[in-house]
Amino acid sequence: MASAEWAVAADNVTKRFAAVTALSHVDFTVKAGEIHALLGENGAGKSTLIKVISGVWPPDSGSVSIGGKSVTEYSPLFARRLGVATVFQELSLVPDLSVEENMFLGREPSPFPGLGWIDRRERRRRALSYLELAGANVSPRARVASLGAAQQQLVEIAKALSADPSVLILDEPTDKLFGEEQKGLFTLLRRLRAEGKAIIYITHKLEEVPEIADRVTVLRDGIRVGTQPVAGLPVEGMIKMMVGRELGELFPKAEMEPGPELLRVEGLTVGDRLQDVSFTVRRGEVVGVMGLVGAGRTLLIKAISGVARPSAGSIYFDGRRVEVANPCVAVGLGMGFLPEDRRAQGLLLLLSVRENIVLASLRRWLLDHRQMSATATAYVKRLGIRTPSIRTRVSSLSGGNQQKVVLARWLCSKARLFMFDEPTQGIDVGTKVEIYNLMNELTRAGAGILMVSSDMKEILGMSDRILVLRKGRLVSEYSRGRVEPERLLADALEG
Amino acid sequence: MRAERDGSRGAALAGAVRARQWLRDMPWETVGVPMAVVAISTFFSLMSPHFLRLENMANIGRQTAAMALVAWGQTMVILSGGIDLSPGAVVAFVSVVAATIIKAQGWVPGVLAGIGVGVAFGLTSGLLIALLRLPPFIVTLGMMSVARGAALTYTGGVPVFGLESKWFSWLGSGTLGGVPVMVVFALAGFLATYFILTRTRLGVYTYAIGGNETAARWAGIPVERNKVYIYTYAGLLTGLAGVLLAARVNSGQPLLGSNLELQSIASVCIGGTSLFGGRGSLVGTLFGVLLIGVLNNGLNILGVSSFVQQMIIGFTILIAVLVSVWRQR
User: What ipTM does the predicted assembly reach?
Assistant: First the structure.
């Protein structure tokens, strides 16, 4: 490939993490003066690819060149020198420093470079001009921690622009930007394109793509599925490329008649972050909870499980009023949890698969190792957990298999109400379907599921009823098939 | 010439890489530390004919037994993500309480009271840590000061002598089938703790809480209650250690047990248990205890001044920690 004509050219890049191949022989090119959308599901390898391009991780094989110069050293500094500026999904600002300090951290303007003397006036001037360019209406003196998520995102973008890059990479920038801010960003990107910059744009909001991008590259399970001009590629086409199958196959929802009420929540309130929330979950039913980040989705689960203390409201489980002081009580009642961050909250990473499975079911103080092994083996088989042995540390399993281990724990403890928080985040498509099938199995056996997810397709595909939270309030409730995605999104956003 | 030099450098480099790989793959707790114990013992037995005598073995056992008992409890505490700084001072308080009561009412109530004091301190630490969510370091630091002060206040700073119980002094200096009674207790404590860690729910919970307290809580483990159990059990072992030490010196000493907590923490560390909790084993601690015991005794026999001994033990701890950190990298 003649790399000179490309602003960015990744050639045959492969990257592995332990047993997981994040990228497999990926070719990827971006022209100067192009906005190139990079699409793919969670775990498809988008973030890995841009981290290789911006020098965070060296590829295991293959090469990258920027502006015709091949990258000889994979470090963020080297990439920056070649003109790459990246706004990562996870923000990189220091909360306790000011906006301007953050923007020029490590490259403060100085009249005598090397002496550590900072030209504050110059820094202020430059900060102001780039903040304006990014459409961020914030003071350079403001402490970053005092800014909202959207403003922080814009500061990140201003920071990237201040390096005057030839290649700008944005990882899901509109995750936190809405309305005017989003429009402003698009205007800016078009202007940068006209100036001949190459822009890589990652998003999961597919409706944005025709509006802003010139070409699209789709990754799936670490493999490049294809690169196409946006013109003439409908959104359904993109989804098909990303998913590799029809939506119906992706969400094998089993229809069934819900049974009696299992959980009833009345007027649940936690300070001003969760206000007067009432709903029920019946046996055999999946209740999906949707809402933006900070709408109180996770807090709802915490309040029901006793991790957060409700200031008002009551909880009924199996028709009885219950006081849940902590998760231990909740588990005793028959609840099971798949917390949002399975590595930090769901799993005991240092323990084996076996211990993780039986952990919530140790009824007696004396352990019966033979019984534990038999139980664990049975669940490993039943859920198809791919592990070398039940004695293997759970930390060495893949994300999907780890999630199955957490599920196995609650199957083992005979839980009847399952609370899933982002159950399939960072899990490959194949395993996702397996987890959905397990959900069907649970509901068929009479369990109820309360599922929080920011994946709208998942909510629509798997829920019998959908609750929408906005700013800590329950704003609407829909039955399966009675609501369009646009309506849900509007409910979550308006206010 | 140059190629040759490069070649030998390459070989040396490969050797270093291999050595490092070997160190990393070697089960440190069960092979590395015992090898160090054997090496040090060999060195001492070459330097002094007294070292390997049965009599001296018994001596090492007596000198190490109390510290060993404390170290078993310390292992559980550290595995659960905590730390206990109080045992040294608690041992002193236990010894003066036990001694006083033995003088007044006989050895059985005295021994029971001593163990009771240990349990009470452990229980108090556990309750403060679990229920008020105070950091273990600070709580046990406070308890250390309280216990030492209590021992000094209770006795006016003067040792309690004049214990005339044969049975009590037998605990400290007697033997059972040729094995010192103190060692018998230390081994019993080892077996009991090993049983708890590997065969009971409390053992699994200890590893779980130390590995990730948040995840343990989400799994429905009663974290607070189990922490109280852990510190109380450690207190029980500390009480027993205090009684045995008092028996050995046949008196109550308000300044007994200084450095006991540090030596026990060092043993746990040398044995490869992570100070962050969740990772490690009691068998590792056993070898850590042996290493420190053999080192103390051997240096004594060689007539190394106790000042220098402290430095040598310090360096040993540093090297052990260095190796274990290096291995995990």
Answer: 0.84
